[in-house]
């Protein structure tokens, strides 16, 4: 994504992030491992796994440092 293609990427109708978001099969495993590393023992349904820099603002969906 660059300034030149914003209209075709994050400003596109229909939801830019839907097309770049990693599948739940990947994020679910990451969420589980991350929760365990913090000693979280509650239900993962009660937790939110989110990006530091939102995908709408250009956050990299494939960079684990952005989770």
Explained architecture:
By secondary structure, this protein is mainly α. It has one domain. It has helices at residues 16-20, 24-37. The model has no long low-confidence stretch (mean pLDDT 79).
Q: Would you list the SSEs in sequence order as H and E?
A: HH
Rg, Cα atoms, Å: 14 Å
Helix content class: 25-40%
Number of domains: 1
What's the tally of helices?
2
Strand content: under 5%
Question: What's the pLDDT, averaged over the residues?
Answer: 79
N-to-C span: 19 Å
Structure class: mainly alpha
Q: Uncertain segments of ≥5 residues (pLDDT<50)?
A: none
* Main beta-sheet annotation: none
* Total strands: 0
Shape: elongated
Write a concise synopsis of the structure shown.
The protein has 67 residues and is mainly alpha-helical. The protein is elongated and about 45 Å long. It has two helices and no strands.
Give the helix/strand layout.
Layout: H1 16-20, H2 24-37
